[in-house]
């Protein structure tokens, strides 16, 4: 998804028709932390959609900030949102909140639905 997002972002903002996406190997363990997603979704089952999506959004922001802060201490952070209008320390972009909200609910539906029904 990150490759698709960065490709489309460069196409729409920089008019780069090559659609060359970017990511970092450092992102694999960060995305791997998503393994806790289904157990969390099970705990939130039955709650209002807006509450679930809000929880996912906040947790994504906290994870992005914490991992970015740690990687930055070693000059290894692969992202820098300092030029974005609604950034926090260049590590998170608040204008991404709607995307994280929707993405959290999509992940819940795609990756956890069957597992959650098995209980």
Briefly note the structural class of the backbone: mainly alpha
Task: Give the strand line-up of the largest sheet.
Answer: 1-2
Largest beta-sheet details: 2 strands, antiparallel
Distance between termini?
29 Å
How many helices does DSSP assign?
Answer: 5
In percent, how helical is the residue content? 55-70%
Principal-axes shape call:
globular
The rounded Rg comes to: 16 Å
Average pLDDT level: 91
Question: How many E strands?
Answer: 2
Low-confidence stretches: none
Order of H and E elements = HHHHEEH
Proportion of residues in β-strands: under 5%
Summarize the structure.
This protein has helices spanning 2-14, 27-32, 37-44, 49-73, 97-117, and strands at residues 87-88, 92-93. The protein is mainly α and 119 residues long.
Write the layout of secondary structure elements.
Elements: H1 2-14, H2 27-32, H3 37-44, H4 49-73, E1 87-88, E2 92-93, H5 97-117
Antiparallel strand pairs: 1-2
